[in-house]
């Protein structure tokens, strides 16, 4: 049968006219770098113009531009009463050359508190006791182990450095254990107190090189360093074996939670401003943001949202989980921190904010 007859499965309802929704307000249009202009200015001015262009370049450059604006504003306002900067980082970053940037921030009093892993403390101190070597990502792991070399990506740490660290750290435990015994165990040492004692010991044991250490400058300037997973590393092994042979040394992390919240607290009148800079993810990120209500947060991460772990959560996930307030200003840069972080801190024009 011919005509307009159609089977029911072929029927399509008439198309409806759908009104296109209005586009919400946008930050602006995509910009570019005018290289012909850069050729006519000196190096510092050229660098400043390139950095200033990031916010309108698009993709991750725009995120980096916003992150840099947040960090630079926090550094400019650091001397304003109530304005605080907190730093969280993973241990691989202090194994890298970023350690000098972190040490500069502590030396200049530009940070108020630090959250890191056990390795984030150990690797800083180990660099005062021996060199960290530059290798390659593709080196054979089994061969490195036979040669007595530990690897952090393309960084190599000789076993002898860890032996030196053991010789350094065990006397710290003996001193603190003696103080606990003298108090009849009314004193229970927190991880942040142990880390401060490590900084004090560095000043005595390695006076010629301690000025390169983040932990030393945090001790000198009374900047607390929090490491909630303090036993997850070489220090944890030494605490375990120390207690196995001597018994009674108590490390209590609970008071450090209250201490961190006090460091990140604002004044009673509600004034002040807290900026958190999170380099890497995992425990340092989560522990800082769950305990401190930040007004601005900068993330630098290589995590991908698909794996669902804490390092990879996007901004809306973190708001849902209560790590970010609805009003918090946030910039999330997808990038490796040794590349990104110096651009956040560097201030061209002869006034270096530890960008190195």
Automatic annotation (TrEMBL):
Residues 1-28 are annotated as: Disordered. GO terms for cellular component: cytoplasm. Keywords: NAD. InterPro entries: Deoxyhypusine_synthase, Deoxyhypusine_synthase_sf, DHS-like_NAD/FAD-binding_dom. Residues 1-13 have a biased composition (Basic and acidic residues). SUPFAM superfamilies: DHS-like NAD/FAD-binding domain (SSF52467). Belongs to the deoxyhypusine synthase family. PANTHER family: DEOXYHYPUSINE SYNTHASE. This is Putative deoxyhypusine synthase. It comes from Trypanosoma congolense (strain IL3000). The lineage of its organism: Eukaryota, Discoba, Euglenozoa, Kinetoplastea, Metakinetoplastina.
């Amino acid at each position: 049968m011919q005509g307009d007859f159609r089977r029911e499965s072929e029927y399509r309802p008439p198309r409806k006219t759908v009104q296109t929704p209005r586009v919400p307000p946008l930050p602006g249009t995509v910009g570019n770098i005018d290289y012909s202009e850069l050729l006519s200015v000196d190096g510092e001015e050229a660098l400043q113009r390139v950095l200033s262009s990031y916010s309108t370049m698009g993709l991750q450059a725009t995120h980096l531009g916003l992150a840099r604006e947040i960090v630079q504003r926090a550094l400019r306002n650091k001397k304003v009463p109530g304005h605080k900067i907190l730093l969280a980082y993973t241990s691989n970053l202090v194994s890298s050359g970023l350690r000098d940037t972190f040490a500069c921030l502590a030396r200049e009093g530009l940070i108020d508190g630090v959250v890191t892993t056990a390795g984030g403390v150990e690797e800083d101190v180990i660099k005062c006791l021996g060199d960290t070597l530059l290798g390659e990502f593709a080196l054979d792991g089994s061969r490195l182990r036979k040669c007595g070399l530990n690897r952090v990506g393309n960084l190599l740490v000789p076993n002898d450095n860890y032996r030196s660290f053991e010789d350094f750290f065990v006397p710290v435990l003996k001193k603190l254990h003696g103080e606990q015994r003298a108090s009849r165990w009314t004193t229970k040492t927190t991880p942040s107190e142990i880390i401060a004692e490590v900084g004090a010991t560095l000043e005595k044991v390695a006076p010629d090189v301690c000025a390169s250490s983040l932990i030393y400058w945090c001790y000198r300037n009374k900047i607390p360093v929090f490491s909630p997973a303090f036993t997850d590393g070489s220090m944890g092994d030494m605490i375990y074996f120390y207690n196995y042979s001597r018994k009674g040394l108590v490390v209590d992390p609970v008071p450090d939670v209250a201490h961190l919240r006090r460091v990140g607290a604002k004044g009673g009148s509600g004034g002040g401003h807290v900026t958190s800079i999170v380099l890497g993810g995992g425990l340092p990120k989560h522990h800082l943001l769950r305990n401190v209500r930040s007004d601005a947060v900068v993330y630098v991460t290589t995590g991908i949202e698909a794996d669902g772990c804490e390092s990879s959560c996007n901004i809306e996930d973190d708001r849902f989980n209560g790590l970010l307030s609805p009003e918090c200003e946030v910039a999330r840069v997808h990038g490796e921190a040794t590349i990104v972080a110096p651009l956040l801190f560097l201030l061209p024009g002869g006034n270096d904010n530890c960008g190195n």
